[in-house]
């Protein structure tokens, strides 16, 4: 019997505007005991089905913030679970404070009345507290506030499970929180929207390189690249996440 390896598949690694035709952010983590998603952007159900992911095996969805390219796929995922997948096992969605309210508002905006139908499975929501480790079964996740659109409740995540640590910045410009977020992580997934241009809300490659020595993770991979970064991809020293690509721990 083959032993399950811990892995993360980049279901979607693009920005909000589908630069280079990439899907919105969605990472699928497979461990010995659980499957879960980190973010579920608007195009995620399409991408998950393209890569033939067993949706009923996904136990948890961890959200970094409330922008459509990071959580806009939830109404489709939830309603597909109800009407197509015939899901019976619970689904738990974890995010910054007000996660249930935000997801409910989104579902009502997209499919009026959909948030109040009698689901055939338990749909649970958990608010994360900044800097406080949240233990769910054998998954420990800690949310770190970062610097992005304040209305979106932006956070980075640090997930520990089955002996691995995954750190993910979410969407953010450079902020000192990233140093603590990255400490000792096996993999740091870092958004890097701009190449040299420094702007509010998003990371630049220039600032990343300047601060690289301070990031104490085993490996860094870049995601959420804008057109400027894509055009300069041949100059990038870090690996770039690709839709469908898999990283094994």
Percent of residues in β-strands: 25-35%
The order of strands across the largest sheet is 6-5-4-3-2-1-14
- General shape: globular
N-end to C-end Cα span: 19 Å
Topology pattern, helix = H, strand = E: EEEHEHHEHEEEEEHEHEHEE
Q: Main beta sheet: strand number and arrangement?
A: 7 strands, mixed
Number of domains: 1
Q: Structural class, judged by helices and strands?
A: alpha/beta
Mean pLDDT: 96
CATH architecture: 4-Layer Sandwich
Helix content: 10-25%
Question: Number of helix segments?
Answer: 7
Q: Within the CATH hierarchy, at the fold level, what is the topology?
A: Metallo-beta-lactamase, Chain A
- CATH class equals Alpha Beta
How many β-strand runs? 14
Q: Cα-atom Rg, whole angstroms?
A: 17 Å
Give unreliable regions as ranges.
none
Oligomer: single chain
Task: Tell me the CATH superfamily.
Answer: Ribonuclease Z/Hydroxyacylglutathione hydrolase-like
Q: Nutshell version of this structure?
A:
By secondary structure, this protein is of the alpha/beta class. The chain is built from seven helices and 14 strands.
